[in-house]
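Q: Give me the 3D complex with iron/sulfur cluster.
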Amino acid sequence: MNTKRSVAFHTLGCKLNFSETSTLSRQLEQEGFEKRAFTDKADVYVINTCSVTDNADKECRQLVRRIQRLAPESFVVITGCYAQLKPQEIADIPGVDLVLGASEKFNLVQHLATLSKGDDTKICSCDIETVTGFNSSFSVNDRTRTFLKVQDGCDYSCSFCTIPMARGKSRSDSVENVVNQAKQLAANGVKEIVLTGINLGDFGKGNEGGKKHEEDFFELIKALELDTAIPRYRISSIEPNLLTNEMIEWVAQSKKFMPHFHIPLQSGSDAVLKLMQRRYNSELYREKVELIKKHIPHAAIGVDVIVGSPGETEAYFKESLDFIHSLDITYLHVFTYSERASTKALDIKPIVPILVRQERNKIMRNLSYQKQQYFNAAHLGSTRTVLFESIKQKDSESIAMLEGYTDNYIKVITPFRAEWSNQLIEWNLA
Ligand code: SF4
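A: Here is the predicted complex, encoded as structure tokens.
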């Protein structure tokens, strides 16, 4: 590739993917690429895919077709989890020029330099077992809140999950590097960092220049509190078995780590948890929630739940629903189970019919709505600190608004005031 270059990105999936796209985008901008919106004409289009998204292949195909209509001469690059899992399937999509697997994602600049239009589709991928490097990434949204990737991959083997196959073994940045990055972000005006990873609580396994480092997540958060000037940190998500009681007690007295936890549960039925090969039971989960609430009564607790996974009978679903109902949690992220190739869950019976899965999703979402309403109502009249982020303006007719979150993750929207943007403001929840 040569001459004048512009690039457009599209991200599917999780916050980790967004932070990686953000980093790829900065790398290309440093190389002289001009960044364009995905709906505009560009010389290069990069789609960062996800394996968790339903119909990843369909979505990819549609996006590539759209690019071909808009800019048939452009280069199309597909990367991300789906590109690692099904490189050939993606390469067969007409219009795709380059497929980059997990090990090659961050070599995008070098690969683009060797691309010529009209060549056969190039696949640069390798066996996921051999992927051991760690590439740190962060996304910056209006310089306010940043998702900082500190860990990648997963050594667990939950029966429904393809992530270990797409992202490889658990590995992390070092405490020292993360602290340095946080210092840099603080110097750039960032007020809140969300620590992000695939299995964040497993932070600590690393390999730097061939030198192994063994640290842990607790060491990381203590170092960030002590050594950086970032006023707010959040932990994006942590497995209940890795969230130690010591950590909960520490967060309770921390000045910088927000009273907000996101803890995947997936099911409130012990039988289903076993089928899912999760590493805890409902009793341990309850203990964690109760300990958080004992030390931090105003803490927000978010919960991931999967409904309709194989083996989830009507009785197990009811058990799960009752369990979650009984927990003092704030909101749920509800996922409907969908089949993934090469996972152990495919062998589990009975399979839950699609319509039943959808019905269960609705019931769980309803419960989530009630929990959130209850939590918000319990905080009415109290004063909490809000970090206002960005302008929310639907169209030129509507009034510009500012959006932000309290320390305990209650969303606040108010008419725009320039002086409040990226500021921490004491706010009465009326
Ligand atoms: S902990 Fe389980 S669900 Fe989460 S990434 Fe690892 S294997 Fe997947």
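A quick observation: The first helix runs from residue 15 to 30.
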